[in-house]
Amino acid sequence: MISLLSCRQIGNNSYILSNINYTCNSDQYNFYSMSLVFPFLISWVIVIPFILLVHIYRNRSKLDSLFTNMKFGFLYREYKSNVYYWEFIKIAQKLSIILALNFYYQNVVIKGLLVILIITAYGIISNKLKPYKEDEQNYIDSLSTKVCALTIYLCLLMYQNDYKYLVIISVLMIFIINISFVCFILTRVFHGYKQKIQKIFEFLTIKVFKKQKQQQISKKQINPKLREKIRRSLINYCYLSLDKRQEIMFSVLNNQISQQFSAIKAQQNIQKLEQSQKQEFKFETQSPYIIPNQNSHSTLSIFKLNETQNQSDIISQYQKDQLIGLKIKSSNKRQSFIKKQKNKNLFDTNLSQAQSESYPDDINAIQMMDQSNPNFLPQFMQIQQTNSLK
C-alpha cells in the first residue's frame, strides 16, 4: 500500500516505486491514490488500531476477565497491567520505519538517520517503562533495539565511504554483533526447552541401546561342539522310520509333561505351607484365652495341614485331569501310528536298527533345541509328516 504512494526518480521523471510503468503526479495516479489507496491505508493503519485501543482503554479495569481476555488478550497478555497499550506503540514504530523506508527510498542517509532515531526513541521508552512481565523479555527487547541501531549506523558508515579500512571494520563489527546476538537468542531458546530436549535424548539413547543389545544377543553363536552334535542328531533323525520318530516325539512330550507336573506339585506344596503358617498365626492371635500346650498346638497344626491339603487337592484336581488326559491322548496316538506302520519296508527297519545307538543323543539334542526354541519341535514334526505323506 505505502509503496503505491511513494515515488522514485529516474532521469527527469518520477515513477511509482512498486510499478515503474506508471508515473507519479498523473491524473490516473491521483485518482487511484485518493479513491483506493488512501482509504484502505487509513482504515488498516489508523482506524482499526484506534478502535482496538479505545476498547481496551475502556475495559482497562477488566483486563483479567474471561470475556476481554479471550477477545483482546493477544494484544496485552504479555505486558504489565499499567503498560497494556505497548503493542500499539510497537505498531506505530513499525509503521513509521516503513514510511521512512518508502518515502525516502533514494535518500539513503536520511532514511538511515530517521530509522536510527525511531529505534533509539523506542529503546529509551522501553528501558524506562519495562513493559514485559518477565525481566528476560525486557532485556532481550532492549538488546535487540541496540543491535538494530548499531547495525544501521555501521551501514551508514559504509555507504559511499572512500576509506576502505573503515568499511572492513564496520563489516566485521556488523558480523560479530549480529552473530553474537543470534547465538544469545539460541542459547536462551535451548535453555527454555532443555527439559524437553533431555527427555527426547534419553528416549533415543534407550531405544538405540535396546537395539544394540538385541543385535548382540542375536549375534551370539552356539557352541560349535553342540551345533555339530545337533546337526548329526538331526541327520540321523531324518533317516529314521516313522515309528522311531513317533517314539522320540512322544518321549519328549512325556518329559515335558512330567516337568510341568513336578513344577505344579512344587508350587502346590509351597502354597500349602504358606496357608498353614497363616492359619496358625491367625489362630494364635485370635484365641487369647487358650492355654498354650505343645500337644494341643501340634494336633491343631496337623489338623489344619490336613484341611489345607484337602482344599489344595480339590483345586489342583482339574490340572491333574488335564495332564492325565494329555497322556492318554499321546498314548492313543502312539498306538494308532504303530498299528498303521506295521507293514513297513525292510529298508526302513534296517536303517532304524543301524541308527538305534544314537537314539538317546537324538532325544537330548531335540530337547535342547526345544528348550532354546519352544516352536522348534512342532514345526519340525509337521515338516517331517508332510514329507512322509508325499
UniProtKB/TrEMBL annotation:
It comes from the Eukaryota. Keywords: Membrane, Transmembrane, Transmembrane helix. The chain crosses the membrane at residues 36-57, 109-127, 165-190. This is Transmembrane protein, putative. It comes from Tetrahymena thermophila (strain SB210).
